[in-house]
Amino acid sequence: MKKHLWFGVVGLAAGCFALPAAQAQFGDKASKLSLVKLQDDLYVIHNDYVPGNTTALITNQGVILVDDKFEIDHDNIIAMLKTVTNQPVKYVINTHFHADHSGGNAKMQAGGTLAVASAQARTRMVEAKMSGLPDMTIAPRGTLYLGGRSVEIFWLGRSHTDGDVVVLFPQYRVIAMGDMYTNGEGTPQLIDYAGGGSAKEWTATVENALMLDFETVIPGHGNVVKKADLLKFRDSTKRLTDLITQQVKQKKSKADIEATMRKEFGWQDFHVQMALDGLIKEMH
């Protein structure tokens, strides 16, 4: 199993997914973080592969975060923020319920932070008996105002899960996509069917996001890119749906479809184990 496999669902409550031991170890050790400055007062706290990216908007009245990695990464996130601000974290927005994006909620909340997510994501967290449940939900959109800045949150449809949101920073023309969009080797499109995800609906959901006004894209995992890269990803999601639908109609074997997903879309063992059966079922 390659070191850089994407484990976006690790850290969920026991019983949600059967995870190999190599995957379960994610979240047991703090990640090595780096601070990427996008524009004045807007940063990405980045690490390789897993957990997901954290976005930080710094204002004179506090900080708004998008995603907070695993619980074990909390102290390093706070230490990194202190290199650029003395302001407290007022809000953390979870792009979806997976623990590598929401695992730090409880520790953030203990420090006075309010957690925000979609109604669907909160429901998934309740079902999984996760800690750090969101204090507020949006359905289908909401806006936070802090320190003269606004942050817009949109639920646009199903994709990676049924509760993914994107977060727009309108003054900066930057969007944080969560795992609706990931990039880089080892981070292909992954449909969490147990979490309500949908390959068929994913393309339309990304198209809804593309209607928003932004230039820069922060993925759930991977490096910051431009809108043109998200357009290419949208095309890839449609190609995946069209190709697998065609193969299902042609009554291709499960092994044939798996080979296609590995060769054409970069799936590895984890993606096959988690999503292949659901993908075939959805494309019927």
Shape: globular
SSE string: HEEEEHEHHEHEEEEEHEEHHH
Number of E-state strands: 13
If helices are DSSP runs of H or I spanning 4 or more residues, what is the number of helices?
A: 9
Spatial gap, N to C terminus: 30 Å
Rg result: 18 Å
Mean pLDDT: 92
Walk across the major sheet and give the strand order: 1-2-3-4-5-6-7
Structural class: alpha/beta
Unreliable sequence segments: 1-25
In percent, how helical is the residue content? 25-40%
Instruction: Characterize the biggest β-sheet.
Output: 7 strands, mixed
Beta-strand portion reads: 15-25%
Folded structure, characterized:
- With 284 residues, this protein is of the alpha/beta class.
- Helices cover 32% and strands 21% of the residues.
- It has helices spanning 21-24, 74-81, 99-102, 105-110, 119-127, 199-210, 227-249, 254-265, 269-282, and strands spanning 34-39, 42-46, 54-59, 62-66, 89-93, 114-118, 136-138, 141-146, 149-155, 165-169, 174-176, 216-218, 225-226.
- The strands form 2 sheets. A 7-stranded mixed sheet has the order 1-2-3-4-5-6-7.
- Helix 6 packs antiparallel against helix 7 (227-249).
- Residues 1-25 have low confidence and may be disordered.
